[in-house]
Design brief:
Helix content: 40-55%
Number of strands: 11
Structural class: alpha/beta
Largest sheet: 5 strands, parallel
Strand order of the largest sheet: 8-9-7-10-11
Length: 326
Amino acid sequence: MAAAAAVVVVVVMVVVCGGHWSCLNHAQPIPVAEVDRFAIMNVTVTDVWSPRADKSSDGRVNWSQVLLAPQVDYSRKARKLWPLDPQCSWVEVRFGLRLKKTWLLSFPRSGNSWTRYLLEAATGFFTSSIYNSTHLKYLGYLGEAEPPLRGTTLVIKTHSVGPLAHFPQFPVIALVRSPARAIISYWNYMSVEEAWRRFKGSVSRSSYRTAAFHKFVREKLENWKSIYVTVLRNTSRLHLVYYEHLREDPLKELRAILAFLGVRTSEARLACLARHLDGVAKGGQREVYPYTAWERAMFQRALAQLDVLFRLRGFPPLPDYRRYKS
């Protein structure tokens, strides 16, 4: 194994050196300060490689270590996140190379697209999806059309546990939102005819008094519960994110997600993100609560069941959803 690894390193170095074997003994190291400057601009490193941990005694980092780390693909199109902000116009998002594959799972309308925005801003890497939404591509999610298993994006969005069954070795970040709030947002999303209005549009309140709405509630609550029961019982590398906590303190929750991913960021990026937290796909927040007493009891039973499973897995209890109006 060691010999094979050595051969790989030699081949890589020959390619980088343009076929000149002499440069193998004279690989030019990068000053740590220069690496840090790139990290501030748009490069994120993972726990595969840390310039501070792996630097030599003279304070310099060797190119061979960098070659083995996940890389930014500068040959492909980038997206400037906040070009009109003079302090943060430098922040951009790009595709990567050899990134770890991680699922970003949630019931629909639980903050998945907004979380992707936060992750892209914090790390500089695009995220992808199994859905290929034309609307999200228009909004700037350039990784939406990327083949999700290529290893060029940070996380892969899914609202289904099906892909997890095919690739159970991938870690999972599961976003959990109050089912009562997620379902009503989902109803609005599905009921708005114009696709471009679905993220923030609303329907008439009279639609909540229809048999179709109450059937939708029963069916989607079972779907909501099934998603999280399945992932809790079948995923070993799992990180839970409560949407309500993410809204209350986005940067705190984001740091925890990055720690789970093993991804570093820079304080400069996070400072810019703090100025632009809403993003372009955060849905409208609705304070209506059009559920019957029977439906509210259904929600409480489902929440109690999930809370037990969360605690058994060592996760924090569910939030007290009575505190939240939207």
